[in-house]
Write a structure and sequence with these properties.
With 355 residues, the chain is of the alpha/beta class. The chain folds into two domains: 236 residues, Rossmann fold; 85 residues, Rna Polymerase Sigma Factor, Chain: A (Orthogonal Bundle). Helices cover 35% and strands 15% of the residues. It has ten helices and eight strands. It has an eight-stranded mixed beta sheet with strand order 1-2-4-3-5-6-7-8, with helices on both faces. The termini are far apart.
């Protein structure tokens, strides 16, 4: 079984090869009171930190993603231009590159403590303060779970973030999204390698079933597949290719279980001080906020994006004109990537005293 903690997934077309860094941040105390021992956070950077240390853009990553997730936004003339910004792309807890169940020697596998999205944000905040001596960032940008982290950044550290960009986000995980990840977990743990407590081998059949749920049914829309295939049965061969791609990427099954638990349990309203009031937590965000979502998303309901935009003072909500659903915030379609580069780039440059 490929262990992504020791082997980076193969680079895909359009991804940027950049030196990897691992910051040893000591023990990470989680919101639950448990501790991840010997915590190391994986990240890459693009561009240079300026003398006034005010040009940093933090890129947060989606469920089962890595630091390449938003590479299509990074590059000269793109929304995240390395000639303008110092871009820090972080690997979240549980993706195998940052300390995770699959990579921890002190707490391997199911001995790893459960964590949440606020713990991901806490680890990133520690990185930015300790490694780069930052007192704030220009922006936090993310899609899907990365967008959820961006919103949490605005709640947890309102004076640290000047602006945030959240694509296909949820401030509180919707019942539908909970149902999706639960179904995917059931597919994964239906594999004979699952003994009821842990995986004893690589769950090949589980990953095949998981792919059908997450990469196909939740990740696309009926109209997107209609445009892809003239012959409906051709979709079957495509599903096989997507399955093989997922296997090559080597994401660890236990890592995915842990990240999916964090995903489904998230609510910015449970941030200490807000008593479970999601709208009040969003209302505390001071950062200028841009939220982007397609007209239809089979994973993160677009109503969640609307609710977040309504609750954040002065937030801008823009519809991504795409039929790709949850995959609209990717480079799957060139026109979607071009639209996001234009909108995100203009938003980041519209701030007063922008770097």
């Amino acid at each position: 079984m490929v262990n992504p903690a020791t082997k980076h997934p193969p680079l895909k077309r359009g991804q940027i090869d950049s030196p990897h860094h691992r910051a040893a941040l000591g023990d990470l105390v989680l919101e639950s009171g448990e501790t991840i021992r010997n915590f190391e956070l994986s990240y890459v950077t693009h561009g240079q930190l300026n003398a006034s240390k005010d040009n940093t853009v933090l890129v947060a990553v989606s469920l089962s993603g890595n630091h390449h997730r938003l590479d299509f936004l990074i590059g000269p003339g793109k929304a995240l231009d390395p000639d303008r910004y110092f871009i820090v792309c972080v690997d979240p807890i549980g993706n195998g590159l940052t300390t995770s169940p699959s990579s921890s020697t002190a707490q391997p596998g199911v001995r790893f403590p459960r964590f949440g999205i606020r713990d991901m944000v806490s680890s990133q905040h520690r990185l930015l303060e300790r490694e780069f001596g930052l007192a704030g960032v220009h922006a936090v940008v993310g899609a899907s779970m990365g967008g959820m982290q961006a919103l949490q950044w605005g709640v947890s550290h309102p004076d640290f973030v000047r602006c945030l960009v959240a694509m296909t986000p949820m401030a509180r995980t919707a019942p539908w999204a909970c149902a999706v990840v639960e179904t995917a977990r059931r597919a994964l743990t239906a594999d004979p390698a699952w003994n009821g407590e842990e995986f004893t081998a690589y769950p090949e059949r589980g990953w095949r079933a998981w792919t059908g749920v997450m990469s196909v049914l939740a990740g696309r829309t009926p109209r997107a597949l209609e445009e892809m295939f003239v012959n409906p049965l051709d979709v079957l061969g495509w599903i096989e290719r997507v399955t093989k791609d997922n296997v090559v990427n080597g994401f660890d099954a236990t890592d995915w279980l842990y990240q999916s638990w964090a995903y489904q349990e998230h609510d910015v309203g449970t941030t200490p001080g807000f008593g479970g009031n999601t709208a009040a937590a969003l209302g505390s965000i001071r950062a200028r906020s841009l939220i982007l979502a397609p007209p239809f998303d089979v994973f993160n309901p677009v109503e969640c994006a609307q609710e977040a935009a309504d609750a954040i003072t002065g937030a801008t909500l823009i519809e991504i004109p795409s039929v790709q659903g949850h995959q609209s915030a990717t480079s799957l379609k060139e026109e979607d990537a071009a639209f996001l580069n234009e909108e995100v780039g203009e938003f980041l440059k519209s701030l007063p005293n922008e770097p």
